[in-house]
Amino acid sequence: MALNNDNSKYDEANALFSAKRWDEALPILIDLLRTSNYYDTWYQTHYLVGQCYRFTEQIEEAIAALEKCLSLIRYGEDPKIYGSCYLALGIAYQLNGEYSKALDNFALGFQKDPDNYVIDNSVGLTYRLMGNYSMALQAYNHSYGILIDNAVQTLNLGPLSAEAEQLENQFVELLESGKLKSVLSSNLAFSIVCYNIGVIHAVSDNPGGALIAFRDSIDNIPEGVEYDLPIKALENLLKNNTDESGLFHF
After folding, report:
1. How far apart are CA 196 and CA 208, in angstroms?
2. Fewer C-beta neighbours within 10 Å, C or N terminus of the chain?
């Protein structure tokens, strides 16, 4: 009976978490950790606690909970679980200004889940906050590449050519057919990564690169989704780099 009650509490907390009502989910989860040996020793409980702390800006507490979460993951679990937990902990360290620890955790997460584009996107932001724009761009470009690869796999086209020229031709065909764009613009991820690439080009005094990236970001915003960051960034870029004759300066 007690376990059933605990299960109900967990389900309630999980539902509140999913609804982004983190301040309401947190006390239920903390109570479970205090009263239930099962939930206290399950990594997922500590993961939710850590994320609730993070989203309510209690970063030190988030770090402690996510460290505990990782210590409880059993050997042999799905690598994507490790990837998600290392990502969450890395973001918490990033928010706490501990950038080296953030990068260390992102690296561990990427080892477990190399197809997780969010990890590289977070690496890019960390380097950007550190002022290392070269490494930020490298990370964002890698995240971009993962999303492209995932889209190609989604289209189930079979193996692409190993020859560079043939591979380029295949890629051009995908772009011209619109098939690749239909996958990339099915959610906001690709648009966000393109915007991030544009930001790095802009702060690195490369308006031409920024122009291309911001336009790619805008072109791949999913239909019906409001995402105005690249639109505003492009307007600002054009305003600051266009002369009186209307010529854009690269």
Report:
1. 15
2. N
Q: SS3 of 242, please?
A: strand
Distance in angstroms (rounded) separating the CA atoms of residues 163 and 16: 50
**Do 47 and 88 meet the contact criterion of CB atoms below 8 Å apart?**
yes
d(CA 142, CA 123): 10
User: What structural domains does the chain harbor?
Assistant: 1-113 (1.25.40.10), 115-250 (no CATH)
CB 195 within 8 A of CB 214: yes
**Chain centroid offset of residue 215 CA:** 20
| The two three-digit tokens of residue 60, written as one number | 């030190």
Residues contacting residue 185 through CB under 8 Å, at least 6 positions apart: 191, 219, 220, 221, 222, 223
- Residue 103 structure tokens: 């990068």
Question: Which tens digits make up the pLDDT trace of 92-129?
Answer: 999 999 999 999 999 999 999 999 999 999 999 999 99
pLDDT tens profile 12-42: 999 999 999 999 999 999 999 999 988 889 9
Listed in sequence order, the residues at least 6 apart from 42 whose beta carbon sits closer than 8 Å to its beta carbon are 72
pTM: 0.87
Measuring CA to CA, which residue among 81, 82, 84, 46 is closest to residue 66?
46
Q: Which two tokens stand for residue 133?
A: 């724009």
Task: Give the pair of three-digit tokens for residue 109.
Answer: 């997460």
